[in-house]
C-alpha cells in the first residue's frame, strides 16, 4: 500500500505502514505539519491490512470521534486492550 491521504476539514489524514506492516494513521494540519498519530503499533495483535488500532482516549477522544462522525474511519466492533484502555479496531472505508 502506498502512502495515501484524505482531507478532513482543514486537516489531512495520512496513511503509512509501521515496520511490522500494520496501518499507521496520522493527522496533519493545512500546512502539512503533524498534529497527531491516531493509530497504535501493537506487534502482538493480528490485524487485517486495512485495519488499525485507534487511540480514542485522553486528548484523542474528540479527534477520533470527529473522524468517525465524518466517515473517515469506521469502527469494526472489535476492541484491543492497550495498557488499561479498551481501544477500537477501525478501518479506512474505501
Describe this structure in words.
The protein is mainly beta. Helix content is 10%, strand content 47%. Strands 1-2-3-4 form a 4-stranded antiparallel β-sheet, with no helix packed on it. A 4-stranded antiparallel β-sheet has the order 5-6-8-7. The protein starts with a strand and ends with a strand.
Structural descriptors:
mainly beta, 4-stranded antiparallel sheet, globular, single chain, 94 residues
Strand order of the largest sheet: 1-2-3-4
Mean pLDDT: 88
Major sheet details: 4 strands, antiparallel
Output the structural class.
mainly beta
The proportion of residues forming helix, as a percent range, comes to under 10%
Helix and strand arrangement:
Blueprint: E1 4-8, E2 11-17, E3 23-28, E4 34-37, E5 39-40, E6 51-54, H1 61-69, E7 74-82, E8 85-91
Antiparallel strand pairs: 1-2, 2-3, 3-4, 5-6, 6-8, 7-8
Summarize the structure.
It contains 1 helix and 8 strands.
Amino acid at each position: 500500500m502506498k502512502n495515501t491521504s484524505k482531507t478532513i476539514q482543514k486537516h489531512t489524514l495520512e496513511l503509512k505502514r509501521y515496520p511490522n506492516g500494520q496501518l499507521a494513521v496520522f493527522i496533519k494540519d493545512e500546512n502539512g505539519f503533524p498534529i497527531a498519530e491516531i493509530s497504535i503499533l501493537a506487534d502482538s495483535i493480528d490485524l487485517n491490512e486495512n485495519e488499525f488500532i485507534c487511540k480514542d482516549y485522553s486528548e484523542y477522544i474528540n479527534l477520533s470521534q470527529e473522524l468517525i462522525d465524518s466517515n473517515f474511519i469506521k469502527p469494526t466492533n472489535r476492541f484491543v486492550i492497550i495498557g488499561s484502555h479498551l481501544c477500537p479496531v477501525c478501518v479506512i472505508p474505501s
